[in-house]
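Listing S7. Sequence submitted for prediction.
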Amino acid sequence: MTTSTTTIGIIGAGHIGGQLARLAISHGYNVVISNSRGPETLTDLVAELGSGARAATSAEAAQAADIAVVTIPLKNIASVPVEPLAGKIVIDTNNYYPQRDGQITELDSETATVSGLLQAHLPQSKVVKAFNHIASGDLTTDGTPAGTADRRALAIAGDDAEANAVVGALLDEFGFDAVDAGSLNDSWRFERDQPAYVVRQNAQQLRENLALGARDKNAV
């Protein structure tokens, strides 16, 4: 799906956002990247990325995006622009860390998921959970061509089959086998403290680890 006109808009320029920007540029995408401190603070990163990248506000990154990535602390998701992302695929890389995000009742009671909260904030977008259960540094070092023996796998979860397929193809292009973990209601299976979280695993191992996942209060 790589074309010279496909733009990935990245909201959040931290460890994961920066690495995904590098991956996208290396595969021929345009990148518009933003953070909470303003475009002028991204001068060095954009210089490194080259002519295919530019810094912008989060609203501008959302507007420019063909595919968007939200990779900011969960406590800040209310700041994600809504209207510019309507109808678009939005990749959610986030995890819930109470020591950073504060206690969130819906997550503590397991009546919601991290990506479900973003989907509720973006009701007209197609949210897909991905890239959240790999150390950021591994994103640009662990990818290998399709068919490589013991290729590393990453999970996706989402409620829209077409969006899931697009994100799965993107993972494959970036060097990882994609394993469909189900709907956004199932996305907790590859979040913090679950067997599938931040371990190197091939597709079969990932499927096994996803099946081993259990929630504290609602064991499965």
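Caption to Listing S7: primary sequence and predicted structure tokens for the chain studied. The mean pLDDT is 95. DSSP finds eight helices and eight strands in the chain.
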